[in-house]
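quick one, 90 residues, struct below
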Amino acid sequence: MPHLATALTDAPRLLLTTKQAATALALSPRALWGLTRDGQIPCLRIPGRGKARAVRYAVDDLQRWIQRTKDAQMVRPAEAVPEVEIDGVV
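---
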């Protein structure tokens, strides 16, 4: 039976800090905050003392954002490369 500390260390991370999420998405933390502010990527605000609140990003939400972004950028093959006429040949 695995030791509890080992089991917890081996468990996949469900929530990421802003820095971790930005790194995973190859974005700057500022760009991630912009996407969060615009409502494109949801975050969890974990209560803390006073105004200090930790912000975390769910891995599933980040994966959904990636898929939505990819889907929005998908171009049909006919639209991908415009036809160009060269010396009378298309």
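The longest strand covers residues 54-58.
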